[in-house]
What we know:
Blueprint: H1 2-12, E1 16-17, E2 21-24, E3 27-34, H2 41-58, E4 62-71, E5 80-89
Antiparallel strand pairs: 1-3, 2-3, 3-5, 4-5
Amino acid sequence: xxxxxxxxxxxxxxxxxxxxxxxxxxxxxxxxxxxxxxxxxxxxxxxxxxxxxxxxxxxxxxxxxxxxxxxxxxxxxxxxxxxxxxxxxxxxxxx
Length: 95
């Protein structure tokens, strides 16, 4: 019974995001984990790119990716997850 409840809970798990967190001058990080058993790190990463791009656009700045790390779901070990480090710049050039 416990195994069935655990598996059902995996299907019901949504994604949880840290939200955008400042890590330095005009530099930020956002991370997310979750999804169902078939979720991939790439799907989570795509959500983070959209969130980061929107965050920069709201400041009338351009999104510049610094680094991205993603992991696929591995049943009974970890949920799919990704972490995106980025910069928002006025001129679009990386520093």
